[in-house]
Structures are given as structure tokens and as C-alpha cells.
Amino acid sequence: MTRVALLISGGGSNMVALARDMTGDHPGRAKLVLSNVPQAGGLLKASALRIPTAVVDHRDHDGRLPFEAAINAELDSARIDLICLAGFMRILTPEFTHRWAGRILNIHPSLLPKYKGLHTHRRAIEAGDTEHGASVHMVTGDLDDGPVLGQAVLSVRADDTPATLAERVLPLEHRLYPAVLRRFLAGDTTPVTIDARD
Fold first, then answer.
1. CB–CB of 166/124 below 8 Å?
2. Which residues of the chain are modeled with pLDDT < 70?
3. What are the chain's domains?
């Protein structure tokens, strides 16, 4: 059974979707939810799901390397095999990603390679895109740049705002990430596609 850590910074809705799927015959189990934000709402949700939690506040550390060393200490203590970033709003160093190479996934709200980084919904609308969505990818030392393991696609509507587009993409993330993780842990890296276009 693969021991999975879920890293969050906020409400943890993708974390909840992943954790709820990791039951029964699933090859993984959520063994730790870690946040860099002590007040993150997802920590309470994790506790309600009976998943151990940890906080490593980046503000308590002098730089990214000491911060990541503290994260690694928590991951090692929980004997973690795989990391899923689920709204973890810190950029990880190449040293960290190298240590976890092949064992760290992320979900990003765009159709990668488009719109790496922040404000993806606004950028898609401003570019006049007719399609948008979310991607799950392997994490490498470059931001939002690893191999894509799955994408969910929807149509951008004429009246969409960044807020409405985000609201419509999020439920697709909740479907996509668990589907990718289940297949990945079974050794299948064939990209998953969810087509929710109008």
C-alpha cells in the first residue's frame, strides 16, 4: 500500500477528493495532510477524515531550504512514499523535487503547457481561449513543467469571468486528480482525459 502525503495551503477541496477516493481496493492511502498555513481550513477537514496532520509554517524558517528540510522531516516520520500537491502555494526548490523525483504530483488550473503560474483563469479569458481546464502533472525542478498525466477540458463561455471559470473548473479537478492518482499508483501513466466541453 502506497503511503500518500497531501500538501495544502488552503481549504483542501482537492485533498478531500483524493482522500475520499483512497479507500477499498485503492492502491494508496492518505497518511498525512501537511500545510504551510496553520489556519488552513483543509487541516480541519483532514482531521474530520481521521488523517494525521502537520504544519510547517514557512514563516518560521530562514529560507526555502530549511523550510523544506522541516517538511522532509515530517514526510520521513510518516514514512511517506508519494506526495500530492493539492493547492500547496509554495514553489519547491530543485533540491526538494530531485529527492522526490517520480514521486510527486501536482494539479494546476490550466491546460498545460499553457499558463504556468498564477491567474490562469484570467489569462485564458484575456487570450480569447475557447477551451480551458486543469492538468495533473509530475513535478520537476521547473514550475508547472513536468510530464502531463491527465487533463480535464471545458468550453469557455462568452459570459465567463475568472470567478465563474474557476467555479466550473474546480469540480473537474475533483474528478481528474483521483482518476490520475489511482492509475498512476497502479503503474499506468497513460494520460487521463475528461471532456466536459459544451
1. no
2. none
3. 1-100 (3.40.50.170), 108-198 (3.40.50.170)
